[in-house]
């Protein structure tokens, strides 16, 4: 490590806490409802993804661990046939948020049971129903998706398909795991076919031996919400560096620390994203020379977010369940919301009962 170059910049305030707000990863929470960042960053620096992971899931102070209401659940389905178009729907949605002290309602909740019914129908049309149906759901929230899928299969599939099926929820939050059991348990016959494994789906050891049997994996609003890493470059031509977070001496602030790229996961992610692809194109030398000259006169720091949490989970699933069929759904954007840096996670906050 003697050859490493370290740079410290940008103090972060005491109450700066990256908390989960579906559909994206970061937001600032008031001191009254958040723990201090220095509770996460100990004596040694940590990567940004580890900071985010701890802020979300630590058993003692994680956002999901302490807030069972982090994922909203509607008491009844929205009656869309009584809404006259998009504007009426948005007004109704605004009313729902103002009436509920909930961070976010996921699409599977807002469009229940139809959203989950559509997934169930897709599975029934494409699965080999001559073998027992096995479904994994990662990050199952309140359990509405699991219940509604099992409801649909119970009512529409041959009895043997429902009777022999297995539905496994992999949920890192113990509070949400409990909620899922309660939701699915509203139909007593579902419970013998459903179980929750309270663990981190991105931890390979939790999956045990490789499962060579066909199965389905459902991930709704999961991939885009996973921890990211951040990389930094001093200017347009300087090499990328890893961003670490460290606690400042004799202070309750944390600051960024830059190190040369060494983390294998970050390196793999950069290779896949292909940040420097322009260097391999025709005329790369001329372009590189121009960029180098420009950077001397007009240096501009670069920041880029790497979806390392997403990459790790997909790698683990591919290795553990090589015959899986994957159903993943995520938000593609939020209007008028930005975080500095390329591929940055989006910020979602809630003010006056309205998510933005």
Automatic annotation (TrEMBL):
Enzyme class per UniProt: transferase
Subcellular location: Mitochondrion
SUPFAM superfamilies membership: S-adenosyl-L-methionine-dependent methyltransferases (SSF53335)
GO cellular component: mitochondrion
GO biological process terms, semicolon-separated: methylation
InterPro entries xref list: NDUFAF7, NDUFAF7_sf, SAM-dependent_MTases_sf
Role of this protein: Arginine methyltransferase involved in the assembly or stability of mitochondrial NADH:ubiquinone oxidoreductase complex (complex I).
Name of the protein this chain belongs to: Protein arginine methyltransferase NDUFAF7
Organism whose genome encodes this protein: Macleaya cordata (Five-seeded plume-poppy)
Taxonomic placement: Eukaryota, Viridiplantae, Streptophyta, Embryophyta, Tracheophyta
